[in-house]
Amino acid sequence: MSHENEDLDARLARLSSATAGVQARPGFAGRVMGRIGQEQLGTLWALKTPARRFFPIGMLAAALALVWAVSVDDQVNEALAVNDDVELSW
Amino acid sequence: MLGNVVDAEDVVQEAYVKAYRALMSDEFDGRANVSTWLYRIVTNQAIDAMRSRARRPKPTDTADESVSDLASAEQRLALTELSNWMSELPPEQSAALVLKAVEGMTSPEIAEILQCSEGAVEQRLVRARSALRKRSEGQ
């Protein structure tokens, strides 16, 4: 090899200039963006599993809200009926 | 540092994913320059790759094949020579020397990237040079 007696700094300088023009392969930026896109999808999938745990709680809350809404509706009807002096017969 | 474009691309890609995760979770505090912060992530990823490569050595001729379609013969030889030469050093010393001698960075910049003091950088550079000189004298 012709670089056997080369000084350490000279060898580093030679290798530095010889490798300076090396670039990534074509399409590298697209591959990186694709990988980051996968990462974003992974985040969405990761959110899906914990969300499933809250489904029964959500259903219970919806049922309670429905019961509350019906009871409030009855109370409102009664109040309106009294205000209009309507005699209720049961 | 890694001796071939394919490994370097893998390292840079994973580094960008780490940077993306850090940005999404507000881990980047903005104290460091963005380019310094990215250099830090890439360098740490490269050091990890060199460590795992040291645990399971790879045939050196794969480096030639991996860059055959995009680098000249001179570049391929230089990459392989640099990688083989730097593989004689511990990854931290190799990283400091490559950042200094190949990337042309200053010691304060290297210290910020490697998250150590300037004194530690100088020490790594001295040790790296000394080890490489000893090896070349011994050959």
Task: Describe this protein with a few key phrases.
heterodimer, A: about 90 residues, mainly alpha, B: about 140 residues, Arc Repressor Mutant, subunit A
- pLDDT averaged over residues of chain B: 84
Distance between the termini of chain A: 111 Å
Radius of gyration of chain B, in Å, reads: 16 Å
Q: Per DSSP, what share of the residues of chain B sits in E-state strands of 2 or more residues?
A: under 5%
Distance between the termini of chain B: 22 Å
Count of runs of 4 or more consecutive helical residues of chain A: 3
Helix content of chain A: over 70%
The largest sheet of chain B is: none
Which overall shape of chain B is indicated by the principal axes computed on the Cα atoms?
globular
Q: What profile does the largest beta sheet of chain A have? A: none
Largest interface: A-B, 23 and 32 residues
H/E element order of chain B: HHHHHHH
State the low-pLDDT regions of chain A, or none: none
Total beta strand runs of chain B: 0
CATH topology (fold) name of chain B: Arc Repressor Mutant, subunit A
Q: In DSSP terms, counting alpha (H) and pi (I) runs of 4 or more, how many helices of chain B?
A: 7
Shape of chain A: rod-shaped
Coarse structural class of chain B:
mainly alpha
Number of strands of chain A: 0
What share of residues are in beta strands of chain A? under 5%
Short description:
With 90 residues, chain A is mostly helical. Chain A has 3 helices and no strands. The mean pLDDT of chain A is 78.
